[in-house]
Design a protein that fits this description.
heterodimer; A: 259 residues; mainly alpha; 9 helices; 74% helix; B: 305 residues; alpha/beta; Rossmann fold; Alpha-Beta Plaits; 2 domains; 6-stranded mixed beta sheet; 4-stranded antiparallel beta sheet; 11 helices; 14 strands
Chain lengths: 259, 305
């Protein structure tokens, strides 16, 4: 069996086992949260938010991306926990590690499914946000949502956030795989995130704080001349860190005693 | 004799400083039901985890189907079905969906899921969520998952643990059927002697990480052709000390007597003399042929003394 077939099997099984779980709903509903609130706000108070000469899409982008980016950190922690706790809770590590797939394949399948879930939800977030704008065009026509706007920005930002997230996501993933205790990775994750928020007030090396890469790397997306492929150093750092951590975690899993 | 289906040589395994396996060497004959017997904490599950590459031994070798486990891991695991300790089941999925998860990992046809459900007699409950399963059903589902690849070898760790009497009988019949009708070699661990006695053709006894006996079940009975001696006396403590000093293995002590294993009738006289000489009043000495349970207790208790 070649490794592509093996990986297909691993991923197939991995995706199948999330049937009827809360996490599937979570992956869909969590990205709807901020867009839904924004829809409410724009319907109720849209006229106060959008000036006569403004493009309301710009306002919507801002009101979506900032809170979305903030909440996404928690989302990542929770998804990382779900992906491992499905095995921890069912005592199934020993089941999946005694199947005729190499440990590396089983591990890689999990990593890929985890990343896929994050990317899926981020893209869904973009879709929902665009839908909010399009709905407002119909529901409150005088807000001006019929103005031209490059919708591609939503997906560009989603992809950039995804890449800049991988760094700390890999840490969350490793911790969740390693420890049976769910609170430990969650506590460390929240600690990491809050420490970034505090240190961003003026610490010299905050640029290297993995939990801050998505926020720092985003750049000034409200600038009309915004170029999404700028300020890539945070993306590089994040992807670099993820590569190192996923490899280390993989070595850890391959050597681990499976109880 | 054909080559053993499982062969281990000198397995040592440590949990930090604790030596869980000490030079474990096993030879499991093809086609056998191999009973792996030992008290709780003797190293049975650890051995099984080593056989399945879940634990990596510090020393020693495992070869299965005549091949090194580490070099041919996936190939070997593809021909083994395993059920280890408490069931590994996704509780939010139905029985059939649980099997589907495993089938996706191992490949194979969809129909195989129905076949194994039939073998373990779980067809009627296959669509119930596994969280509503009884322990017996969980065990059978685990076994069904182990059978998906139609493996040559089944490794079952305490498969009757926690089952009620009818569940135990059902599991036993299933194991016999898999061995006789489907020709599978079965490696079966248990701490319940009667369980092994009813099923196994071959046995190994492990205690404190050491293999104390390996061979035919009948051989174990013959090895136990020693005698059991029950002594009724007044000072149990004194008697225990005196006899242990002389190297006798005491199996059990009661408030008014002792049970010990001896090799010959001559030893009865010797024991009597020893006891009398140390001032113990002996009221009765009775000997009987040792049963398998006594052999087991005797083998595993010798180490404690």
């Amino acid at each position: 069996m070649n490794s592509v077939t093996a990986l297909k099997r691993g991923i197939g099984a991995e995706l199948y086992k999330f049937r009827r779980t809360f996490i599937l709903w979570f992956l869909v509903l969590a990205p709807a949260f901020v867009p839904f609130i924004n829809l409410m706000i724009f319907v109720k108070k849209g006229h106060e938010l959008v000036g006569p000469d403004d493009n309301p899409w710009e306002r919507l982008v801002q009101m979506s991306i900032d809170p979305g980016n903030f909440l996404f950190t928690f989302f990542v922690m929770i998804v990382a926990l779900f992906v491992s706790s499905i095995e921890q809770n069912s005592n199934t590590w020993k089941l999946i590690y005694t199947q005729p797939l190499s440990r590396l394949v089983v591990y890689t399948s999990k990593v890929l499914v985890f990343m896929l879930m994050l990317l899926f939800s981020l893209l869904l977030f973009s879709v929902f946000t665009i839908l909010v704008g399009l709905s407002l065009k119909v529901m409150v026509p005088d807000l001006g949502f019929d103005q031209a706007f490059g919708m591609g920005l939503f997906f560009q930002l989603a992809i950039k956030i995804f890449l800049a997230t991988l760094g700390y996501a890999s840490l969350q993933f490793w911790m969740s795989q390693r420890w049976k205790n769910l609170l430990l990775p969650l506590g460390i994750g929240i600690g990491g995130w809050i420490s970034f928020l505090i240190l961003s007030q003026g610490w010299k090396y905050v640029e290297y704080h993995p939990y801050g890469f998505p926020m720092l790397g985003l750049g000034n997306y409200q600038d009309p001349a915004y170029e999404w492929l700028s300020e890539l150093k945070f993306v590089y750092r994040s992807v670099g860190l993820a590569a190192v951590v996923f490899v280390l975690a993989g070595l850890d899993m391959v050597r681990k005693r499976v109880v | 004799m054909s080559e053993p289906i499982i062969q281990t040589q000198g397995l040592d395994f440590y949990f930090k400083d604790f030596k869980a396996l000490d030079q474990v060497s096993l030879n499991v004959p093809r086609g056998s039901i191999y009973g792996f017997l030992g008290p709780n904490g003797a190293g049975k599950t650890t051995t099984i985890r080593v056989l399945l590459d879940l634990f990596h031994p510090q020393r020693g070798q495992v070869s299965i189907f005549g091949k090194e486990l580490l070099d041919h891991r996936e190939e070997i695991l593809g021909k083994i079905g395993a059920l280890i300790e408490n069931p590994s089941i996704y509780k939010h999925l139905s029985g059939r969906q649980n099997l589907e998860v495993v089938r996706k990992m191992v490949g194979g046809k969809k129909e195989r899921v129905e076949e194994v459900l039939k073998i373990v007699r779980l067809v009627d409950n296959a669509d119930k969520k596994a969280k509503n399963y009884s322990l017996g059903m969980c065990q059978r589902l685990g076994l069904a998952a182990a059978l998906l690849t139609d493996p040559e070898l089944l490794i079952l760790d305490e498969p009757t643990n926690g089952l009620d009497p009818s569940g135990i009988i059902e599991m036993r019949e299933l194991i016999l059927r898999l061995n006789k009708d489907h020709g599978k070699t079965i490696f079966l661990s248990s701490h319940i002697l009667s369980e092994i006695e009813k099923l196994a053709t071959d046995v190994a006894i492990i205690d404190q990480g050491k293999i104390l006996y390996e061979g035919k079940l009948d051989g174990l009975k013959n090895e136990g052709s020693s005698l059991q001696l029950t002594i009724e006396l007044d000072h149990v403590d004194t008697a225990t000390k005196v006899l242990q000093k002389q190297g006798f293995a005491i199996t059990e002590t009661y408030h008014n007597g002792l049970l010990l294993t001896i090799k010959s009738k001559q030893e009865i006289a010797e024991i009597n003399q020893l006891l009398v000489a140390s001032g113990v009043q002996v009221y009765q000495l009775s000997s009987s042929q040792e049963n398998l349970e006594a052999v087991f207790l005797n083998l595993t208790k010798k180490l404690d003394q």
